[in-house]
Amino acid sequence: MIAFENLGFNYGGGELLSDVTLRLAPGSFHFLTGPSGAGKSTFLKLAYAELRPTAGRVSIFDRDARMMTRDDVALCRRRIGVVHQDCQFLDHLPVATNVTLPLTVANRKGNPQDLTALLDWVGLGKLADALPPQLSGGERQRAALARAIIMSPDVILADEPTGNLDWDMSLRLLTLLVELSRMGKTILVATHDMNLIRQAKSQLAARVLRIQNRRVQLAGADL
Amino acid sequence: MKPNHPALLAPVQLARSLFARDRQADRVVPPSGFTAQLTLFTAGAMAFLAVFALALSLASGRLADRWASALAGTATIRISAPPEQLDTQVAAVVALLATTPGVASSRVLDTAEQRALLEPWFGPDLPVDALPLPRLIELTEASPGYDGQGLRLRLAAEAPGAVLDDHTRWRRPMAQAAERLRLLGALSLILIAGSTAAMITLAANAALSANLPVIRVLRLVGAKDAYIVRAFVRRFTLRALTGAAIGTLIAMIGVALLPQADDAGAFLTGLGFQGFGWLLPLLLPPLTAMVAFAATRYAAFRTLKGLT
Fold this sequence. Notes:
heterodimer; A: 223 residues; alpha/beta; six-stranded mixed sheet; 10 strands; B: 308 residues; 2 domains; four-stranded antiparallel sheet; 66% helix; disordered N terminus; transmembrane transporter activity (chain A); nucleotide-binding (chain A)
């Protein structure tokens, strides 16, 4: 799905990531951990071509990210659902319209019943007509997750998706991600919440990656 | 050349972008009151000015053509001589003109015609017969024309009291002035179009900057640049079209209400459009829309290039 080969990245103020080689296999579930500022968000942005590597290469669906045109990137993102900690919405449009935005920009018609089922699945069935500023942090995260998966993407990337949530809400979001993994989606979650990782590992075979000294390593059993 | 280059835009593409049903694309950009009003006002004001610049240019052109065609090809010979020699010199000049290459015809103005020429200054009761007025001979130039210098020399030899006035002295500066006014009018139209493009580009840039979070969300969920650009372009183009239509309408009413030339007989009263000329201002709203389309498209693509 997404492969990193000898990847390096620097912002101009020193190297943030170096010599990273990793492959996200179809249907896999990965956590990405590391201290704040280690490069977790950068790694995710490289995975959906928001950033381009300064060394090595990133292949997204077998295409070199550096060779992609802007339209290619847009088409790729239709196959990648992204959830951010500070998820952004079009605040002037209701939740239902925001959730169906990926379908709208792809000029695809959604089934209203599917939308209702999806909103119910993430627990936002009664908030379909609410505006995003009216949602709580947890509701925003779940709305972002619904928006990320409405196109039935192959890959879901989540950057600190539970950062603003209490434990109960975090578990609820994790349950949704686990269900998606069981549907065969490839999932990468960047988080520093070890409890969340332990909880997930009790439910499915998730691999844990750690960014340390600019490199991405497979974490041991110390979690 | 890239396919999105404004120079490649076809009117069909403009129409399709404007009128294609794309309400969803429209809705993704939040309504922005300030830039909407700015674009509407700018397009309206510029179209209003453009109508007057167009009227000025057309009126100047008509004037230049009228002066040039009315005076071109004619000349006057004025004969001032003692009364006993006047008829002799007139006959000599007429005979001379009949043999001058480049002169198609000549005609001695009679007393009634001379009175008509003087009437605007001295009134209808002028005793023309009692005044020592010069005699006037009007000649019409053939093609190719006569040699003015040669004719003057021959006149000096045959009729010492005859003076050739080929109107060039005063006709040329007037025709040149009218021609320059026409050019200035056309230049004003170009400047107005440029100013409109600049103002709409600024307004579009302001709208794009204000909506960067919206654009980022759209890119994140897989929107192509063309989709995002279309949302902005459509909105700005329609605003410009509406503003220009209003400005043009008001200006045309203003021009229609100008006093008629018959009433005052001055140049300024001839500023109105004539005949099919009234259709020309109607081109301004679609032209403004095309300018807005190109300006917004250029601004939008430039902004998007800076985003991932």
